[in-house]
């Protein structure tokens, strides 16, 4: 089976919400040595963007989106562990989470894996994470990076609240703050006092390595 057929099979599985199809094509990707990043980005994520467009156009509804999300995870479960991990002698710490009020965690989990694969030590705070959890954990584990994700416009302000909390606690100057998720932008990052915003998991890891080492 060609790489293109595998990528199409992964994308179609997410669009149709078929976890078994995602698993079998993900396994094929592994067997045929297709790059796990290509399988994720040009297969699964591509399918999810089709679902997003159809949801916005009211051609599909929330239960179908949920099936697609579950399908995405069925594929990611096989593909994420295949991403080769770099070993850096000097481990920098990252905490990552989805801000309060938001449960969308697929993108955050991809970013987390890419950061781990890039040799960073990542503590995952999960989704719908209260402001105080970000601030308290940053201080208690002495993190080098606070990474936040949100997919929804109404929850974006939570990112500013976390940064304000870090300023108040005195820890802001000791950590980088990186944000992401489609409603955010570089301008928004600047406005709320974050160090960086990235549209994409791989590029954010490259930026962090420049900034940290
Ligand atoms: C899947 C999905 C769901 C799933 C989520 C399952 C899960 N476990 O995540 C379910 C069905 C649960 C869901 C629920 C809801 N959803 Co929804 N959902 C989506 C959908 C279709 C896809 C999101 C996704 O997973 N994309 C794939 C991932 C891989 O992409 P990504 O998250 O963007 O991540 C990449 C980058 O952004 C970046 N990135 C992300 N985070 C970070 C962080 C850092 C630090 C960095 C550097 C980079 C980075 O890197 C990632 C990988 O490259 C989007 C539509 C869309 N077009 O995005 C709507 C969408 C996000 N949902 C939306 C809404 C409104 C909801 C609901 C409120 C619906 C409802 N009425 O109940 C609820 C939310 C409940 C809540 N309180 O959170 C809206 C948000 C609108 C807005 N702007 O506010 C969207 C845009 C749909 C729409 N067009 O209306 N949803």
What does this structure look like?
The chain is an alpha/beta fold and 213 residues long. The protein has two domains: 3-82, Methyltransferase, Methionine Synthase (B12-binding Domains), Chain A, domain 1 (Orthogonal Bundle); 93-212, Rossmann fold (3-Layer(aba) Sandwich). It is 57% helix and 14% strand. The protein has nine helices and five strands; from the N terminus they run ααααβαβαβαβαβα. It has helices spanning 3-16, 19-31, 36-56, 62-79, 106-117, 131-141, 157-169, 186-192, 201-212, and strands at residues 93-99, 121-129, 145-149, 176-180, 196-198. Strands 2-1-3-4-5 form a five-stranded parallel β-sheet, with helices on both faces. Helix 1 (3-16) runs parallel beside helix 3 and helix 3 packs antiparallel against helix 4 (62-79). Residues 45, 48, 51-52, 55-56, 62, 65-66, 69, 101-108, 110-111, 147, 149, 151-154, 178-183, 198-201, 204 line the site of cobalamin (B12).
């Amino acid at each position: 089976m060609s790489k293109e057929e595998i990528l199409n099979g992964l994308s179609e599985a997410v669009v149709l919400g078929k976890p078994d199809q995602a698993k079998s094509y993900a396994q094929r990707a592994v067997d045929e040595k297709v790059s796990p990043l290509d399988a994720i980005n040009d297969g699964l994520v591509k399918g999810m963007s089709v679902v997003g467009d159809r949801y916005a156009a009211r051609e599909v509804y929330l239960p179908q989106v949920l099936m697609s999300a579950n399908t995405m995870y069925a594929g990611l479960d096989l593909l994420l562990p295949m991403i080769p991990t770099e070993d850096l002698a000097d481990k920098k710490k990252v905490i990552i989470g989805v801000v309060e009020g938001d449960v969308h965690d697929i993108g955050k989990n991809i970013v987390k894996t890419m950061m781990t694969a890039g040799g960073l030590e990542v503590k995952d705070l999960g989704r719908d994470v209260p402001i105080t959890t970000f601030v308290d954990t940053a201080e208690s584990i002495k993190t080098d990076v606070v990474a936040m994700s949100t997919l929804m416009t109404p929850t974006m302000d939570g990112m500013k609240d976390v940064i304000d909390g870090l300023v108040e606690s005195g820890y802001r100057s000791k950590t980088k703050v990186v944000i992401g998720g489609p409603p955010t932008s570089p301008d928004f990052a600047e406005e709320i006092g974050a160090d960086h915003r990235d549209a994409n998991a791989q590029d954010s890891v490259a930026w962090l390595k420049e900034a940290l080492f």
